[in-house]
Design a protein that fits this description.
By secondary structure, the chain is α+β, with helices and mostly antiparallel strands. Helix content is 24%, strand content 22%. A hairpin with a 2-residue loop joins β3 and β4. The protein is globular and about 45 Å long.
Length: 221
């Protein structure tokens, strides 16, 4: 597949969550900033300062906004327990992957000591997996399933990175994003990792699956 045929939204302000969603759906019209702002308000309608986005209104949306946005399109977001080995994942049943990684905040050439997070989309297109990070100049080819597996293992070895799986509602209910649910539940060879601080990931308004168990179409758009 020609890289020019892949929709790749570039970074603007702190709108990486919006870029991640549009890159996931391969469309600039999948979501808009006003729509994500409405979701923020729906999550915390009584808060004077909305905790789900930047105070300055530049973006910096949290996972709750992403999850709610995907729910509005009939998809479910599953937090992957990175103490588990990604080889347990049933890649053919997963629509896409969203990584949350640390990010520096810069003004001109000055790096500010601010805690920021960055959203990155990974998805399959015509049999190959691509890193659609909005900070990249162009989509980056990861490769096939074995390459994606190695990539995810390397990323999840970092304690500050988290992985979310995007699946259809049916796959979420059936937990068919896993190759084998029984063996996964009884797997004693867990990878070392700290459990993510769920207060940064969930809210009362959003149902996130935190079951360490994974449905996707290979060409989802």
């Amino acid at each position: 597949m020609n890289l020019n045929d892949i929709y790749h939204e570039k970074q603007v302000r702190e709108l990486c969550a919006l870029h991640a969603l549009n890159n996931l759906f391969q469309s600039k019209d999948a979501f808009t900033k006003p729509e994500l702002d409405v979701i923020c308000h729906s999550l915390s309608p009584d808060n004077w300062i909305n905790p789900h986005k930047s105070v300055l209104g530049l973006g910096n949306y949290d996972i709750n906004v992403i999850m709610k946005a995907l729910q509005s399109r009939g998809y479910e977001t599953i937090w992957f327990d990175k103490r588990k080995d990604p080889s347990c994942l049933n890649f053919k049943n997963i629509c896409g992957y969203i990584l949350n990684v640390p990010s520096e905040y810069k003004i001109s050439f000055i790096t500010l000591p601010l805690r920021r997070r960055h959203w990155i989309t990974i998805r399959q297109l015509n049999g190959l997996f691509y890193n659609l990070d909005s900070k990249l100049e162009s989509p980056q080819i990861i490769g096939r399933e074995s390459d994606l597996l190695n990539y995810l293992k390397e990323e999840l070895d970092c304690r500050d990175k988290e992985l979310f799986l995007v699946v259809t509602n049916d796959v979420g209910k059936e937990q068919s994003w896993l190759k084998n649910q029984a063996s996964y539940s009884n797997n004693l060879q867990e990878r070392e990792a700290e459990i993510v601080q769920l207060r940064d990931i969930t809210s009362d308004d959003v149902n996130v699956t935190i079951n360490p168990l994974c449905n996707s179409r290979s060409d989802w758009s």
